[in-house]
């Protein structure tokens, strides 16, 4: 297992370097640098003045040299300064990431148990009315994007149009103090969208397990249906959904872009939009490295967890 972990760690580092170099190359394209120079000085700057400013700021150095310097800064904890917020990038990123972490935590608390319950109930009686009803609900939630469901929930539960002003609190206030009234709508918007995908995967896995030979043997021995589901089928049925659940973390980190801007919750997704919209190169690069690290770490945890959950898999050194 140690050799397996070290190999995966090496692949993670190599993948992170490749992905960040691609992002670094894209944000340092000449039009972006020219726009940055004019935004930081004067929009009417001449081409000669732009060239002079870029040379003074070190943007005319070879790309690989600047990338190596940036990586060295990241390793030492210096991610540069934000041109949008006029403060160190480290302070901004961790502050906004903490806010998004709270949102992701509550989304997972609501989404995962609900999705697993929905999938198990649908899959344990494949082909029945119960299965078709729950599967239709799961498909409906997955087919409805967050920007649609978010608007619908806002109109129904937080506006004067319908009259159900159950969640009238602003999500912006949740940045200081989370309450049931100001945090339910953004959590529900994200949880319902992601719940359908996990539920469908769980349903397919559960339906497959329920047709296995050892399940038939348990039925012939007279084991109750409830005991078959809980003691025999459930653990094996949750192996495949485990990977899907781990993949929800990268999706949540990038999916919050829509929800946070929709509800004006200024977390990591809102920060990413601000960085891209204002051509804040250091901030945009820092957001990208955070996203890459989260994806790679969750993939590593998923691989290790899958090995432990599935005894048929053996790790080769």
Task: Give a quick rundown of the structure.
With 317 residues, the chain is mainly alpha-helical.
Characterization of this structure:
The structure is a single chain. With 317 residues, the chain is mainly α. The chain contains 13 helices and no strands. It has helices at residues 2-27, 30-40, 47-56, 63-75, 89-123, 129-142, 146-157, 180-210, 213-220, 225-237, 239-262, 268-277, 281-309. Helix 1 (2-27) packs antiparallel against helix 13, helix 6 (129-142) packs across helix 8 (180-210) and helix 8 (180-210) runs antiparallel to helix 11. It is globular. The model has no long low-confidence stretch (mean pLDDT 83).
Mean residue pLDDT = 83
Tell me the structural class.
mainly alpha
Sheet having the most strands: none
- SSE topology string: HHHHHHHHHHHHH
- Low-pLDDT sequence parts: none
* Strand segment count: 0
Q: Give me the number of helical elements.
A: 13
Which geometry do the CA atoms define?
Answer: globular
**Radius of gyration from the alpha-carbon trace, in angstroms:** 24 Å
Question: How large is the share of residues in beta strands?
Answer: under 5%
Distance between the termini: 8 Å
Percentage of residues in helical conformation: over 70%
Itemize the secondary structure elements and their pairings.
Elements: H1 2-27, H2 30-40, H3 47-56, H4 63-75, H5 89-123, H6 129-142, H7 146-157, H8 180-210, H9 213-220, H10 225-237, H11 239-262, H12 268-277, H13 281-309
Helix pairs in contact: 1-13, 2-3, 5-6, 5-8, 5-11, 5-12, 6-8, 7-8, 8-10, 8-11, 9-10, 11-12, 11-13, 12-13
